[in-house]
From TrEMBL:
SUPFAM superfamilies: Homeodomain-like
Lineage of producing organism: Bacteria, Bacillati, Bacillota, Clostridia, Eubacteriales
Record protein name field: Transposase and inactivated derivatives
Top-rank lineage group of the source organism: Bacteria
Single GO molecular function: DNA binding
Biological-process GO terms, alphabetical: DNA transposition
InterPro entries on file: Homeodomain-like_sf, Transposase_8
Amino acid sequence: MKRKRNFKEQLIQEAQEVGNTLSVARRHGVSPKTLYRWIQDCKHKAWEETAADAKKVTAYIPSPQEFRKMEKENNTLKKLLGEKDLEIAILRDLVKKTRPGFLTE
């Protein structure tokens, strides 16, 4: 069993180094699907063995300068959106006046 495990680990390592799983599988007479499954199992096993502290995801908190910059950009975008909405409303009114049957709402 230990020899088999070493063989699997050796093939997984070789496939990762070479970057071509298919050729490694053919060279050693193993089914490519089997080797792909071994690699996937190895990745999941590595995740399970990872410490809980390393798996934690922290929230990004911007600095005050970044926050001000984002606020400024947000306000600029809100103004642009408001202007575009107003422009669309004006154009719709114009179309209604010039061609009353054209738009149906």
